[in-house]
Specification:
This protein is an all-alpha fold.
């Protein structure tokens, strides 16, 4: 397996600009609105992120768990991991080190970490038709991925690129999807973007299908950008745009309600 070359990535710059405009609109509300108080500016943003954070946990648990008991356990682990991520962000720590993968694995999938503590998988893995790299190549590929990430300046592109490639490598026996999505959202949230999550089962099916086709094309032509890889990046941008818009609307509504209450008091 060869990693996707960073220099061939083709991204929808107009959609990224649209996302950035929504994020800027959020901060204009927080900073300039007459209906927000200085003391609660941070609370408003964190409340919005907290709601989205819960949705991330709920959706991921529903999509991956085989039964209700597993869903509850997955949800608990995801909440713990996302609380950890938020604390790291507050401490100005972005996701950029290989050791952080193992930190997330211990939180997101403790049962997997117990199989091979602080080690990558030692067995062959196949995802659909995609045969993941053999175990001895995993450490080198993961290290190379972190190195390549350093050359990607845009946090959105970096997060999506990391997601796509780490799933292709599939470094752990289990929990790869959960670890990858939490790591991706760590990068996004560090730069004040909302997290990306999957809304429902049909979207999950589409997500899996797009990744599988992208992996297949890259296996045949590893150094060429293809339509399926492009589609995956586009779908991730769409999800991010939806979540950014939801965050804006929730913060805007708080300001409108405060304005309404002030008028009623007059």
């Amino acid at each position: 397996m060869e990693l996707l070359p960073v220099e061939i990535i083709q991204i929808n710059e107009k959609k990224i600009a649209k996302i950035d405009n929504v994020i800027k609109s959020i901060y204009r509300l927080i900073i300039y609105s007459r209906h927000h108080l200085d003391d609660d500016l941070l609370d408003i943003y964190l409340d919005g992120m907290h709601n989205l954070k819960d949705l991330v946990g709920i959706k991921n648990a529903q999509m991956e768990a085989q039964n209700e008991e597993e869903a509850k356990e997955y949800l608990l682990n995801l909440k713990v991991s996302l609380d950890f991520v938020i604390e790291e962000i507050i401490l100005h720590n972005n996701f950029e080190k290989e050791i952080q993968l193992f930190q997330l694995l211990r939180l997101v999938s403790p049962e997997t970490n117990a199989i091979h503590p602080n080690r990558y998988r030692q067995t062959l893995v196949q995802i659909g038709a995609h045969i993941c790299p053999e175990p001895k190549k995993v450490p080198q590929l993961v290290s190379e991925l972190f190195y390549k990430m350093q050359s990607v300046s845009n946090p959105i592109i970096k997060a999506i690129y990391f997601h796509h490639e780490l799933i292709r490598i599939h470094p752990f026996v289990d929990g790869n999807g959960r670890v990858t999505r939490v790591a991706k959202n760590w990068m996004l949230m560090y730069d004040l973007y909302p997290p990306i999550f999957i809304n429902d089962a049909p979207q999950k099916k589409e997500y899996i299908s797009t990744l599988a086709n992208s992996f297949k094309e890259l296996m045949n032509q590893p150094n060429q950008w293809n339509n399926y890889t492009s589609t995956f990046f586009e779908q991730e941008l769409d999800r991010l745009l939806v979540n950014a818009t939801l965050l804006y609307e929730s913060i805007n509504l708080i300001g409108k309600n405060r304005e309404k209450n002030l008028i009623n008091k007059i």
